[in-house]
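User: For my dataset I need records formatted as: sequence, then structure tokens, nothing else. Please produce one.
Assistant:
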Amino acid sequence: RLPLGVPARGYCIAETGGRLWVCTGHRVHVHHMRQSTSMAAFDLPNRRWKSYLKGIWRDGLVAGDWDGALYHLTTSRAASSPLHVPAWDDTPIHLLAAADDGTLWGASWNGRLRRWGADGTLRPMSQLPLAPALPTHLLALPQEACVVADQAGGLTVFDAQGAVRWKWRSEQPIRALRAETLHTPYRYLVWVGERQVFQLSEGQPHD
């Protein structure tokens, strides 16, 4: 039994290797399933936290604050420089998603999408990827692409250069989104409204 309680505003992330990251809101403890005490622990920077990636990225946590900054927090660099330093007109990064290849995507309230590579650097894109409305769901796809659902019922796939690769729209809000990317064209399972579920293939026209 681990002698650590997780408050309502905290969260846990389990890794396949047996490590468990427990955040209490102010401090992070890293446990292993075969040990009764913490492997490591560190204090979080004193920020107003808004969002976090629901997984471990580059051996650390990724969390965004209400000012629009994004941090990569590890046991060795808990107070490291943020991945993103916000401009005066930035809005919070409220959605985060990582791909198997290490690519990280973040979506802000204003629809702006940003991408970081597996090495932790911000990836420039030839076009500015912008969701048509407030992003509500975000998935990272292979080859540094992403798909985002927005508050207006839109579904948009952006490629590695930030260009729109495909889009689809529903008359009702999108409640959940899943992607199947083992084969092309990619397929998306989209829960719309209260009772409708659409199975879409990337590239198919809107009915």
